[in-house]
Amino acid sequence: MELVPWLALLAGVSATATWLALRYARRHDLVDQPGERRSHTVPTPRGGGIGIACALLAGCLVLLYLGTVPVAPVLCFAGGLLLVAGIGWIDDHRPLSPWLRLAVQCLAGALLAWGLFGIDGRWGCALLTVLLVPVLVNVWNFMDGIDGLAGSQAIIAAAAFACLVPTSSAGAWPLAAATAAFLPFNFPRARIFLGDVGSGTLGYALAALGAWAAAGVGGPSAIVLLLPMSAFLVDAALTLASRILGGENWWQPHTSHVYQRWTRSGRSHVFVTSVYVAFSLVATMLAVLLAEIDPWFAVGGSVLWFVFAMAGWFRLRRRLGPGKGN
C-alpha cells in the first residue's frame, strides 16, 4: 500500500505534463497531418509522451533525494533518458537524420549499461543493455502508429516484468502508472500522440527494465521476458526484414506493418489495439507459466510461441494485402 501514493504522484505528474504538452502543441502547430504514410485521418498534436518522461525523471529526483538507492544507476538511467527523450523532442519539432538519432540512442544505451552493470564489472549484462536500448527504442517508434497501441503494450510489458521478476517492480510499476496516466489522452480517440519523445521514452525504459530483469533471472529462462513484447517484436522485425529484402528505403515512413494494414483495411484503431492487447496478455500468462518450469522447457515453449506468432503474422499479412512502402 505504500506504493500507491508514490504511483499516484507519478501518474499525476504524467497527466499534468501531457495536458501541458497538448496546449503547447496546439499553440506551436506541433501537429501530425494525415497522409498516405499515416494511419490517422485528422490532424493530431504530437509530443504528448514528454509527460511520461517527466514523470520518470521526477521519480529519479525523488529517489536521489530519499537516498534509498545507489546514486550511479539512477543518474545513468536519468542521463540516458534525457538523451533519448531529448533527441526525440527535437525530432518532433524538426526531422533529424535517423543515423544521428541512432547514435544518440547507442550513447544512451552505453551510459545506462555502465550505470547498471559496468560499475560492477558485469560486462555481459552491460553489452545486452547497450543492444537493447536502440532496439526497443526503434521497435516502439515503428509500432507507434495508431491510437493506444504503443502505450497499452508498454503497460503490459512493464507489469509483466514486475510479476516475473519482483526486483524490477520498483521501476516497472512507475512506468506502468505514468503510461496509464497518458493513455486517456491517446485512447480510444487520440487527442495527442506520443511523438518520438514518447515512443523513445517507452522503448528506453523497457530496455532498462528488461536488462535488469534478465540479469535477475539469469540463464536460459530469461527468454520468457521477451514473450510480453512478442507482438511488437514480431511485427517490427518481420516488417523490417521484408522491406530490406524488397529493396525499400526501410528507414522512411510507411504503412507496411500488420497493424497499419489492418486499420487501412477498414478496422478501427480500437479493434486493432484491443487484439494486440489480448495477444500480449495471453503471451504474458504463458510467460508466467513457463517461468515456473524447467529452464529448457521454458526455452522450448517460448520458441514455439514465437513460431506461432510469426505464422500468424504471415497469414494475416497475406490476407490484408500490400501496405504503403517507400
Straight-line distance between termini = 51 Å
Helix content percent band: over 70%
Class of secondary structure makeup: mainly alpha
State the total count of DSSP E strands. Answer: 2
Could you tell me the mean pLDDT? 93
Number of helices: 12
Element-level helix/strand string: HEEHHHHHHHHHHH
Radius of gyration: 19 Å
Shape, per Cα inertia axes: globular
- Let me know the largest β-sheet: 2 strands, antiparallel
Total discrete domains: 1
- Roughly what fraction of the amino acids lie in strands? under 5%
Which ranges are low-confidence, i.e. pLDDT below 50, for 5 or more consecutive residues? none
Strand order of the largest sheet: 1-2
